[in-house]
Amino acid sequence: MTLIPKYEWLKKRNPKGKMQLFEPLRAVGLAIEKGHKASLDKGLSNVEVSDVDTVKITGKLEGWDGASWQDLKTCFLSLRPQDSALALEAIQKQREYFQDLGYNYHKVDFRLPGSRVSLDLLGDFSPLAAPSLQACGKVWVELKAFDSDRFDKKEGEEETKLKQLLPRVMQADSNIQGVRLVCSRMEKAGHGHYKFAGIQSKLLAAGAENFVRVEGTKQFVSRGFAASKPDLVTTFSKLEWHTPVSQAHSGTKVALLADLLKVLKQPPGTPGKRAQAFNKRLKGPASRRLRTLKLAKAGQKPWVGTKAVMRKVYKML
């Protein structure tokens, strides 16, 4: 089978029907899944870089042979050394997270009988897990790795897909009563490198309309794990939005910086000093910076920003 040595030498057709270069984090995601499978076979402590340094790619592909692009259906792709190491770190963090939640998986990359649906992980919750989780019976887990810059968008797209797919999975196996989306947040570390920055997990139980956050224990966070921020939708829904007196004619809404810091569990410090630090990093036009405006409700001049501003500060944090 063809071995592709570089990401830029491989293209795959995307859902829109266009061929696009294979992205590093997509390869890391496949390596994470492969590593979980190896951990079932040989134990987590025995999983090595050699277990995750290549991944199998299938679908409508094009591979570069040094002279031209060739059509492929299946190939192997070599990961960069730093990406193999990143996959190993993510596997270890995910296993630690699963253990903390009381989740045990028994099958990896499992295809349901009589179905074309393939599940990343399939397992259940232990008796020590929260009662609401135990009630889910068997739970299927989808593993994803996303760039922090596009994390919320990618996570939202994946949630939409899984909402549509869960009924089909339950029809094939009625014992499966939920799906967990486990997303690893990867931050750019320069020169095309990424670093592991945390896990965000959500659960969609049978009969529920929306995903809900699934968090570990306080002990899990205290062990030094980088917990992910709440998603933007949750964050913005907890903020108070006001119409400044100076913006009454335009209807512009703003939120208090102190509120955003509180929701994200950041030490507020002196709001003015924090705002000055953020302004230096925002480096955008005046409309995007934090400003002091007199609010109709408060009657004072707290540090406030529009939704666009708060979105940028959220990314910084």
Category from helices, strands and their pairing = alpha+beta
What distance separates the N and C termini? 44 Å
With helices defined by DSSP (H or I, 4 residues minimum), what is the helix count?
9
Average pLDDT score? 85
Instruction: Work out the radius of gyration.
Output: 22 Å
What is the topology, as strand order, of the major beta sheet?
6-7-8-9-10-11
What is the general shape?
Answer: globular
Kindly list the characteristics that best describe this protein:
single chain, 317 residues, alpha+beta, 2 domains, six-stranded mixed sheet, five-stranded mixed sheet, 9 helices, 15 strands, 31% strand
How would you sum up this structure, described in words?
It is a single chain. With about 325 residues, this protein is an alpha+beta fold. The protein folds into 2 domains: about 5-220, no CATH class; about 230-315, no CATH class. About 35% of the residues lie in helices and about 30% in strands. The chain contains 9 helices and 15 strands. The chain has helices spanning about 25-40, 80-100, 130-135, 150-170, 220, 230-235, 255-265, 270-280, 305-315; strands at about 5, 10-15, 20, 55-65, 70-80, 105-110, 120-125, 140-145, 175-190, 195-205, 210-215, 240, 255, 290, 305. A 6-stranded mixed sheet has the order 6-7-8-9-10-11, sandwiched between helices. Strands 1-5-4-2-3 form a 5-stranded mixed sheet. Strand 10 (about 195-205) and strand 11 (about 210-215) form a beta hairpin. The radius of gyration is 22 Å and the shape is globular.
